[in-house]
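Work through what follows:
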Amino acid sequence: MALSGKANILLILAAVASCTANPGSPVGEVAAAPLPEAAPAAPRPEESAPRRRFWLAQPAQQGAVTIARAPTAAISVSFNGADVPLTPDGFFLLGFDRDAENSASLVATLADGQKIEEYLPVRPGNWAIQHVNANPLGGARTTEEFQARRAGELAQINAARSVGNDSGGWRQNFIWPVRGPISGRFGSQRIYNGTPGSYHSGLDIAMPSGTTFVAPADGVVVLAAQTPFTLEGYLLMIDHGMGLNSAFLHSSELLVKVGDVVRQGQPIGKVGATGRASGPHLHWGMKWRAARVDPLFLLGSAPPAG
């Protein structure tokens, strides 16, 4: 029997449906086209090939301190010929003195005995000239008195810096110990009442006497002066690990003692003007081993205005 045009169309649609239906589903339910298999994720560079170079979080520069990472399978690292501590995951710390040479050497020794050496260009700093109205002899009245007192103070400072603690503060993002106007920057050449002196070894933050300041990172207290030092006044030193330490000068009061473990943000002292100071402020100095470094390189935020 001849079928009408409309009937032919219905038969064709039914045939198409029966051909595309999912055998396991009710008749007439069309199966979705299978999705293509997802392409495997591209492997990380670390996973596909070993690291053959050193990595630095920021470029080498006079006064800078930075976290670095050794090539894959390194069992030791030396910096300018001296060994530096290395974490199990290959990280270490580097500091460049204010007067560092214009290049530095890094050498990694691998597990198979192979050595990888790199030379780092060290950028120069831009140091300012700063005039200071203060007595360069500090609290001592004569040069002889100053020298007599200073020898014992330096012995305490050097002993504190020789103490090594397993503190992870060096891996943290440092915070400001107190926020206020910057009255002195690291590295500037000091002129005391017209007489040239040594360069400024820290960051000065001007705040009223008695203002509380906090620990910029975790650490262990290695020095807390019981009496004011000639230059530093009430001096507080904290070891952040990996050879990095902070020194806070001119305090009016210290809130912690030697051996205390401090946590980032914990109150540790109060701003003052003890020792050689032209007014109340917090002097924050930092050293990595023997290198004097600028705290600003460890701070993630811009300095306060002023």
Remarks:
- Residues 129-298 form a domain with the Glucose Permease (Domain IIA) fold (CATH 2.70.70.10).
